[in-house]
Amino acid sequence: MPNSFFNELLQQLSERGRAMLGLARDAAARGDVAELSEHLLSGRGEASGVALAKAVLDTYANAPLATRLAFLTALAERFGADPQKVEEAIAAYHDKPGAATLHRLHTAAEARRQELMRRLNLAPGGTAALVRMREELIEHLPNRPDLRAVDADFVHLFSSWFNRGFLVLRPIDWTTPANILEKIIRYEAVHEIHDWDDLRRRLEPPDRRCFAFFHPQLVDEPLIFVEVALTAEIPGAIAPLLAKDRKPIAAEAATTAVFYSISNTQRGLGGVSFGNFLIKQVVDDLKRDLPNLKTFVTLSPVPGFAKWLERERGSEASQALDAEAKTVLAALDEEGWHEDPATAEKVRKVLLPAAAWYFLKAKTPNGRPVDPVARFHLGNGARLERLNFLGDTSAKGLGQAHGLMVNYLYALEDIEKNHEAFAGSGEVIAAAAVRKQLKGERASRTLVPVTD
Amino acid sequence: MPNSFFNELLQQLSERGRAMLGLARDAAARGDVAELSEHLLSGRGEASGVALAKAVLDTYANAPLATRLAFLTALAERFGADPQKVEEAIAAYHDKPGAATLHRLHTAAEARRQELMRRLNLAPGGTAALVRMREELIEHLPNRPDLRAVDADFVHLFSSWFNRGFLVLRPIDWTTPANILEKIIRYEAVHEIHDWDDLRRRLEPPDRRCFAFFHPQLVDEPLIFVEVALTAEIPGAIAPLLAKDRKPIAAEAATTAVFYSISNTQRGLGGVSFGNFLIKQVVDDLKRDLPNLKTFVTLSPVPGFAKWLERERGSEASQALDAEAKTVLAALDEEGWHEDPATAEKVRKVLLPAAAWYFLKAKTPNGRPVDPVARFHLGNGARLERLNFLGDTSAKGLGQAHGLMVNYLYALEDIEKNHEAFAGSGEVIAAAAVRKQLKGERASRTLVPVTD
Amino acid sequence: MPNSFFNELLQQLSERGRAMLGLARDAAARGDVAELSEHLLSGRGEASGVALAKAVLDTYANAPLATRLAFLTALAERFGADPQKVEEAIAAYHDKPGAATLHRLHTAAEARRQELMRRLNLAPGGTAALVRMREELIEHLPNRPDLRAVDADFVHLFSSWFNRGFLVLRPIDWTTPANILEKIIRYEAVHEIHDWDDLRRRLEPPDRRCFAFFHPQLVDEPLIFVEVALTAEIPGAIAPLLAKDRKPIAAEAATTAVFYSISNTQRGLGGVSFGNFLIKQVVDDLKRDLPNLKTFVTLSPVPGFAKWLERERGSEASQALDAEAKTVLAALDEEGWHEDPATAEKVRKVLLPAAAWYFLKAKTPNGRPVDPVARFHLGNGARLERLNFLGDTSAKGLGQAHGLMVNYLYALEDIEKNHEAFAGSGEVIAAAAVRKQLKGERASRTLVPVTD
Amino acid sequence: MPNSFFNELLQQLSERGRAMLGLARDAAARGDVAELSEHLLSGRGEASGVALAKAVLDTYANAPLATRLAFLTALAERFGADPQKVEEAIAAYHDKPGAATLHRLHTAAEARRQELMRRLNLAPGGTAALVRMREELIEHLPNRPDLRAVDADFVHLFSSWFNRGFLVLRPIDWTTPANILEKIIRYEAVHEIHDWDDLRRRLEPPDRRCFAFFHPQLVDEPLIFVEVALTAEIPGAIAPLLAKDRKPIAAEAATTAVFYSISNTQRGLGGVSFGNFLIKQVVDDLKRDLPNLKTFVTLSPVPGFAKWLERERGSEASQALDAEAKTVLAALDEEGWHEDPATAEKVRKVLLPAAAWYFLKAKTPNGRPVDPVARFHLGNGARLERLNFLGDTSAKGLGQAHGLMVNYLYALEDIEKNHEAFAGSGEVIAAAAVRKQLKGERASRTLVPVTD
User: Fold this and answer.
1) pLDDT at A45 over 50
2) Which alpha helices (H) appear in D96-165, and where do they start and end?
3) Which of A174, A195, A220 sits opposite C178 (nearest CB)?
4) What domains appear along chain B, each with residue ranges and CATH number?
């Protein structure tokens, strides 16, 4: 099997009259990706660059797992910077500090794999192949901290190649090609799309929109997409938005655009952020097309809440929950608690203050909110607008947050100010109603860790 | 005037609810591009990134020359690396050499303007604005060697952004939009296109082709383009190819594709090479569409020949020309010499051997051919195929090369081998007929500098 | 409901400053489509034509069934030709026969509804609305023979508007927009497409193709489409072609293109034929892209066979079946007969000769084959190539043809000859193997009705 | 020459395996277009229709003039209706008047060339070929009244095929493909476009627009186009609009859209009107994009004025001019009269009242304005808004109208009313200022012929 692949590969190359020199051909035949890569790097010109880059990527893609991992390891070990050149560059810099010697130092300290990655990107489909390579790398990272440097170089290059200036926003609707729509179905990470009929209900009604960022090199791959519902008011629960039998409204009648699902699609592009650009551009586009829209808001999950609450319930030192609250929350352990109105009401009175604490006072070691979705939207300059009790009573919603959902509000005139406050002092901007839930507390607007 | 611009700019920004914080607004109002840039760089998140990047680029574009030059200078002086961080990174590396400390050193030694350029690229039209900024920078370079480090960073980033993987090849023909065609007219650098009728003669006949590379971020700008004539044999002169009254042949009847003009269009992308990719992809595309094509060849100018010959004629130590040759070549000083058949014939016998010497033996200090066009095609793996006496008798052709033109042959099966030989030992691959012109010499195939 | 519609409609019209004169507005408000149509027809210029045409079509589309039927009746009764003008034109023609008076007669005898339909076509979406109107008309025809004249005028105009010169062939594949693909699912009339996964299996594998004709005025509506399988030999059964787990082959390895399903989509375009153009253009396109394809063949159902056979079995005078054959065919009445090999083999020996008779000797009153699919392909110049026993054992296949399928062969060099023979003398062109099945008969190649 | 053409043609046909039967091939070889046409018409099916249609059109296009004229004559003589069938159809109708017999009569009276034209339209490029055929026919008409019946059939079919519902409006600008732009240069019929720079001045500035109608079958051919200037007021002269050095204004600052040139491009489509649809759709599109536009007006030539005035000056019975006026107007015979302010002023006082008479009172025999441009715009529902003395002092403008230009105003809310008045009673709707120019007259708003 590998043999026939290499044979075919070699035949193709020779058919195209692009005979690689002897050593490269041997390396390809042996499936030695790292040696092939050395040939690619050593080429003084670019005459054979495209063909060699293709050979490296094809050989890698068709190699068994062990070979692929060996290559990733080689990227870390063999394709770093040359220590001797680094020392020489340091000496030269110390000898004569200045732009020229700094530039030399910068270049000397650059891992050789960066140039290798740039050359691999020459191959047709090279960008996509590199994204998949990093996807594989990410899976190894937990067990292989030595590969982190390789990962950092991937992120560095991808940040440059996937610069927002190169991304293209496209509406996704029922006239979008099926091969792209099936990826929307597959990649939806927040509220699962069950089948094509379900997808159509999210795209075709007049009060639904969907937008995605694309990159010219990955034409059939949405990089990130957002699903939008146009409504008459800020919704507090997801089920009515997705109900099969709901009545759509006219787009022009809507005052509110609800971002109810944002999904990244490429694990290999993790760490390269486009989400904030997406939301802001979608807000701009929607405002232009539908001037009646006044409110831009999310309906978001709270993925870390149940886990945090469990810890607090088990912690004697919990500042968030007192004994009485813990007693009430024991109801959460009974399945179906939310279907009994009396129980639900009792829980509500305790759970919402706890949620307020979770958002406003619970912090990671470096002073950020513990909820990752909160960090994303607050970092974008949004405001925590409302806590929605039992907003998502699906198994997933109950499991991760006891049904809690929240709205983050994107008020364009405040985004900058909110963002600066959050980025600077870590301040969580929240509506008064949210802050009031902190019972017994002086619900000051400024609940920064320092002042608590 | 500038005031009204800034007012309008600020109004726009505030209209979009993207109020910049006080200091950035002041900087914009003062037209202080460097300070605005500091704001852009210091932004912890990207909430205001796009608006600030736009403000920097707009302010720069509308500023007077002195302000613009001051900003370029600031890029060199204020936006380099931080020496203290560099020293710390060096110390850390020496303390514990390894991937992590190397990465830190690499990052510390990176000029801050690189990150600045990446952020400027966020603005709509950012890439084009940066290309124009470098175009301006290049003009200052001869007098301002201190700006070279800035230039190197531009080249580094452009090489990544304009990676061949991101370029798109498009045919240019008479159905191409007029705004692109006018750029073909304007940018043609080899054989001037006089007007739209002239352009049409190069695009519309069945035996003419034109191809250009485009980048998704510069949609209306061909980056480089090549004009192709389909012929029945290798041509020796340009005039018949461009004659108004020539008879086109059917594309299917052609055996030879002649690349008779290759023009780069963006001075701001100088040093980022796409030419070799262009030729190779065009060869591939033509072969697929017209399987009868067997020969791929250029008809190229020899821009450095006249100047070199003048030097040799004036040099007593010339190895290329003996006294007799110099006497004959005195005819070149008479205007119209080429129109007298007898004179022309005498000159031919001396000029062609001199040209062979020029290509095969004249070298730059680092052992490369002195002719820049020769360096380009030989570096791509082409072979110097034929010397064409009086191939271009236009004023320009006579002025730069006494009418000499040459053909470089792209034989796909030899490209790799040729390229390696040239890149490695500097060997100039030339057809036997060219080598024979070196009279009195043992015209060995291998005329590497070492053996001279 | 209708009121709000008319109000909105009228408001729109007045908003656009296209106030209709008093009477037309009254007619619209009353929903009197016929009177609105008179206004449209009487307009001397076209100033209000588009708005009035839209009003007629919108009013019709939103009217209740009785009103719509009343309008169709009015088309027949009120919008015919003017008898007085016809008589005058006849008199003028008799008085002075010639091109001018003939033209006047032709014009006078034209039903006024033709001009009305042409004017309705001015409205945005007018063509689609008229196609739907005829779709409705067709349903009434069986009970309303008086509407046949209206139908004939529709066919006349549609034949002109949907002239093959105006149709565009487009490949349908997995990158086709979903709103078109769902119509492929819905309209597939031969072998049902169960869901999107089923659809994908017919479009995405390398050995599958699909093509459709589109019309510029009905952009999202495929008018007719054909599904194609690329194979290594002529298939005899449908199930293997559609099997979920089959192994695709490379398109370049295929020698045979099998048209296994052809579906018209617009009932309203019944009687306007494009099927033969579709097949011939698809053959041309496939040959150009895949030169290895040598054989173009259908795998077709035999929709009239079971019904015909039942009649023959019950007829004492049957020439097609003798007593022995009838006895054997009694097995067909047992469910599951085809699953018992011995029974199936006995049936096969009788059923295939009967099928040969069905195709070659059974005729309609005007001497054509009784099978409608046979009439279509033979009329296109195809040849009846092979009878496939148990080619379709689905419930539908057993029900309509006891599992029989056939192949029609499109041999480009014979199409014209075959077509002329069929169109002229009604000769059924069939392969020798088919003709041999006529047992006891001298299976002459020419089995024209005359000789029976 | 014709031989080689036919040979090649026949070879092509046979290569495609579409051998025509013997007689058709003979006809093609002889260049007998009419006989080929009979073959096309007689084909019972459509198996060879496309190939035969192509053969007819190619043979026609490549035949010498005499052959082509013979074919047009044959269309008139041989391809009319069959008199015997007409008589039978008349008899059947008289026997039993009704929809069925009327339909038969209509069909019998239809010239056979109509069906022939529909079948010719099957060929690739058939529509364009038929338009060119009629273009040629039109040139013969003045000398060949017997061909008028053929022309009428062309118009009938073209009106159906080029129904406004099938036309597509496209903006023409500087990004439009060059092969279309060159047709704009070539076809501009009102104010000549001198070269590409001139064209660019009409397309590229922010206050210029151009729109054209296209038909899907003639993709590269604009059928009609209109050039628009966006201005701050209604202009009275053409020169400032076209001046090389004028200062463009921002599109958003414009209040007025001026249609200053409307050109039909296809002589072969004469009599098929799209002009009124074009103007109305352009008005709609402009209003949507630029809501500040309030006034839609033409700046139009007066092509019949100079000729009419000459007649009136020479007529003793002239009601439009008295003796004094004739004396003043003698100045028009001096070249350069308009450059002398005093003369010009004297002329103005007489010429404008004469122009008012020309528009409001001079009528064709059937009661319409004598000016063709006036008939077009008034028929569309526009109002004669202003007379512009010396609006066009080019040689053409002076020659046809002594420099006079006029504005027609398209006031959307009045279009319908104006159109009905003009179409009904022939009333010329004109602004009060125009009517006042009728000196000595009671300038009633209603100057219908009856009152003259």
Assistant:
1) no
2) 99-108, 112-120, 126-140, 148-161
3) A174
4) 2-162 (1.20.140.90), 164-300 (3.40.630.180), 305-438 (3.40.630.150)
